[in-house]
Amino acid sequence: xxxxxxxxxxxxxxxxxxxxxxxxxxxxxxxxxxxxxxxxxxxxxxxxxxxxxxxxxxxxxxxxxxxxxxxxxxxxxxxxxxxxxxxxxxxxxxxxxxxxxxxxxxxxxxxxxxxxxx
Length: 118
Prior knowledge:
Elements: H1 3-22, H2 31-50, H3 56-72, H4 74-82, H5 86-117
């Protein structure tokens, strides 16, 4: 397994871990959606590990959706800009922007290596 693929899987696992810390902090009415989102990141980590060519498009789509979703949510923007509550703000910034951007970058790097190895 290439280093880029290991990095991609590590980013997906990191997103799942940060999300698991964030679920109890979120709005209880979105609990089911949060579990579904975290389950999709876990599934993408497994799929990326087993056969990357089935995961690169969903990786991009879900990362973009999370970034856009955090950006258009007034409540999320308020929490991130005021950092109140602090822990929620950090989880949103790290999990919703930093790790998602890292997912996009590692996905592109892994895709380039995948195409070059074929």
